[in-house]
Fold this protein.
Amino acid sequence: MDESEIQRRKRLRGRNLAVLFALLALVALFYVITIVRMGGH
Amino acid sequence: MTDMTLERISDPQLTGASPGDYLELLKPRVMSLVVFSGLAGMVVAPGHIHPILAAVAVLCIAVGAGASGAINMWYDRDIDAVMSRTARRPIPSGRVQPDEALAFGVILAAASVLVMGLAVNWAAAAILALSIGFYVFVYTMWLKRSTPQNIVIGGAAGAFPPMIGWAAVTGGVELPSVLLFLLIFLWTPPHFWALALYRSGDYERAGVPMMPVVAGAASTKRQMFFYTVLLLPVAVSPYLVGIAGPVYLAGSLVLNALFLLCAARVLRAGDDKPAKQMFGFSILYLFALFGLMMGEHVVSGLVG
């Protein structure tokens, strides 16, 4: 595997992790919003 | 590692975009001022908002502003490529494909408005949608390339955040929030034209009809001074309508005197240095005004 392929895979892994964290953050955000809204605010 | 290998690694088409490239599409530096002014609108608004919902509102303002920036970079990729200030942005440098940037911007814009509406209220969501639409369709696609008044009218897009913050708390639009809108609206021409004065060559090459390119430096400097004078009563007005106290009043008078001094120096200058200084000071000026407004409000709330 040459250097450019290693770099490409590294960036792809970075993007995948970023999407994972964004999705988890979105789930947490909706959970927290729901709890707060159900609390009568 | 050979030169050829190095060349291949540095080719963005081969390596793809990193998460940082997508973050850059959101124009994080512009976002900071947007978030700060949105937060100020929320802090000085009468009423109460749950701290978590306030944080969600700030997040939505930030994401909405960033999404507008991403769509702007998608549309302006041709002019960004020929301007030295913007040539290294993710799209002209080939790190992000234009379609990806557009999809990224549209999805974030829709999500920010939807979450604002569902979590906070639909008045704030409507103003957020209006500000995104105004920046993308009115400023970016229409005014920017067609008139030297582009940033005067288009400045409205950047002036909405305190109004959104205010609406997040109160659920509506009132005179004080309109005054906060006007404050940023009238600040935008001297701020942006200061930059355009020393970057006019860039704008000319890109075919963007910025005021210094179309009307010349002398006329631009006179108009900058005019807007800076006009800004003075508006900057003081938060005190007059009761959303800011005497500390803000004193601070705003000093800041406006300094801003006027900057504008006067630009008016008389034969070189770019005063314009560069005025651009830098204009950012500090707005941060300081909103900082004073929020700081005094928080302190008086703690003491009183």
